[in-house]
Amino acid sequence: MYHFDWQVFLKYIWPPSAFQDPLIRNGLIVTVVVSVVAQALGVVLGLFAALGKMSKFPLFRWISEIYIWYFRGTPLLVQMSLLFFGLGVTHIYDFPDFLVGAVTITGAVQAGILALGINEGAYMAEIVRAGIESIDPGQMEAAKSLGMTYGLAMQRIVLPQAAKVIIPPLGNEFNNMMKTTSLMVVISAGELFYGFEQVNARIFKPFELFIAASLYYLLLTTIWSFIQAKIESSLGERKGVEHSPSMMQRIFAGTSGKGVR
Amino acid sequence: MPTPNVKLTDSNIIVKAEKVNKHFGSLHVLKDIDLEVRKNEVVVIIGPSGSGKSTFLRCINHLEKINSGHIYVNGHMIGYHDRGGKLMEDSERNIARQRAEIGMVFQRFNLFPHLTAIENIIEAPTRVRKTPLEQARADGERLLKRVGLADKRDQYPNQLSGGQQQRVAIARALAMKPNLMLFDEPTSALDPEMIGEVLDVMKELAHEMTMIVVSHEMGFARAAADRIVFVDGGQIIEQASPQEFFASPRSERTRQFLSQILH
Questions:
Q1: How far is CA B30 from CA A228, B33, B64, B67, in A?
Q2: Taking the CA atoms of chain A, what radius of gyration do you get in angstroms?
């Protein structure tokens, strides 16, 4: 029978002791930072892709369509490998490390952020587009009849209303994003899962360590679901909208697992 | 008749439509519409539903494109410019600039639900005209008072009745200080008891503004219109002063229409 190593398990699930290992501490930081930055990039790209897809100019529509088609139609793992190893070997872009203040952003982290963000943008595009299309066209007409240009009307009238529709699925996307960062293990970007893999390579306790790893992701997504519920309920209060699902519903409702893209 | 690239010189003509045609696919909704509206004139367009009257109104501020003909507003062709005899759609910025001079009130109000009454009103003056916030607010409050809603200043549209929303929408359009107001069936979506309050505001306005109103409110037409234009099947069938129009309609179709709505 397998002897479960409680000592290793407890050391690695208890943050104060686990964080003594810089692989875990930095891994957690990288995971959170990459998630936030990649999601932000995804939102921006998604917004442009959505506007492009709805553009009256065919060129913009085609660019958006191809972008969405490619990045939703191929696996993220392949996209990430292509970006990091592929571009590296061709010297199109070598992903050199660079410094931001005292922190080194490694090439792998840059590639991870780019791959996750660009991939996410293709998904956000549909979410943003659905949000914009849910707004009564009369809003755009009223704004235009007041002398607003399309851009100004979008920015001041349509998007603030669409945000209400976009934010709940955006929260779910972010939840997914935090889990999906684990794919960066293939480019050794030093995120949380990579940290546990490295520890495992050293002491070979995959059962204990990967349970511990999973619990860290669970912690992150659970904290996020509380924050998300707060955001959504404040959004609902201000605009007089129906209540969003309760905390318990949110945690235990099957998250329609998109899994690895 | 002015050639397309010559501006209208008579500044008393606020709207001039020449041979305007509009198709929705195979449907020919406007057929050679000619109409002139003079400064401070109040024109009420009536006609059966589907007659093209709302579509025509929407062409006047280029919310709908036209397929042929010309529409001049405030002396300039709207939505298009003439390039060697060919009409090209104007730049977005130019169209927006022209629309800023044309107020429009919609059947379903189209207030901005995420903004309060006063915010709805000052949005365009501050963002489009770059009016300083304080001044825009003072102007906005004056307008709210004028439509009888000074106390609803900080309410959101969903906290207002339909009649109140429409009055805010009128104030919002007036805040841009337009010299032409378009009303697209402004009372059709209202409960009967709220129609009066909106029509009162419009009657008040009719003394001092150029207005084109698409409406089924014959009482309003009788009281406030300088001219009634009857449209059917995408054509102007007849136009006359309200007295003449109601007392002695010339065409058979007008008589039929009037007998249907004035039973």
A1: 51, 7, 12, 9
A2: 21
CB B212, CB B59: distance < 8 Å: no
Q: Which residue of B has its CA nearest to A151?
A: B92
pTM of the model: 0.87
Strand pairing class (B42-46; B80-83): unpaired
Tokens of A6: 């409680």
How many Å is the maximal CA-CA distance in chain A? Answer: 76
B189 in helix, strand or coil?
coil
Judge whether A71 and A119 are in contact, CB under 8 Å.
yes
Q: Half-sphere exposure of residue B57, counting CA atoms within 13 Å on the CB side?
A: 30
Does A81 touch chain B if contact means CB atoms closer than 8 Å? no
Least confident of A240-244, A249-253, B65-69, B178-182: A240-244
If you average pLDDT over residues A199-226, what whole number do you get?
Answer: 97
CB contacts of B129 in chain A (<8 Å) are 147
Distance CA(B250)–CA(B248), nearest Å, equals: 6
Beta carbons of B259 and B251 less than 8 angstroms apart: no
d(CA A180, CA B39): 65
Cα angle for residues B89, B93, B95 (degrees, 5° grid)? 50
Contacts of B231 (CB under 8 A, 6+ apart): B45, B46, B47, B51, B52, B53, B56, B237
User: Tens digit of pLDDT for each residue in A166-183?
Assistant: 999 999 999 999 999 999
Q: Are strands B76-77 and B68-73 parallel, antiparallel or unpaired?
A: antiparallel
A239 touches chain B (CB under 8 A): yes
Is residue B6 pLDDT above 60, yes or no? no
